[in-house]
Amino acid sequence: MFCRIINIFVDIIILESLLNLKRGYEIMKNKPDDRRDNVDKIQENISNTIENFNLTEETIEKTDDDKNKKTLEAKNDRREEAISGMRSEIKDEAIDKKNGYK
To answer: What is the pLDDT of residues 52-83, one digit of tens each?
Structure first.
């Protein structure tokens, strides 16, 4: 009898989990992909990253701590790579936008 109660309890938990997954899927499913402002968002990210890059360069010039300088220089190296990737992405998005996202 006890095992039967546990099995029923486990079945209820599984059913509740499946219902929650289905509800989550329906919420996600109803959200259309809106890419119209991607170019603007990417451009804003590029601007913010360039600003952070420049602020970090100023900090590097002012600091005497070699370890800190190397850490900041490494961050800026990653920022340069990120900017390059975002510029490539913005070109792709601009072309897709021009073509009506087909």
So the answer is: 999 999 999 999 999 999 999 999 999 999 99
* 21, 69: one domain: no
What pTM was estimated for this model as a whole?
0.65
Residue 86: closest CA among 42, 35, 40: 42
Which tokens belong to 39? Answer: 């170019």
CA angle 40, 82, 71 (to 5 degrees): 135
Whether 10 and 43 map to the same domain: the answer is no
* Domain enclosing residue 8, as ranges: 1-31
Give the CA dihedral 86, 89, 90, 95, nearest 10 degrees: 170
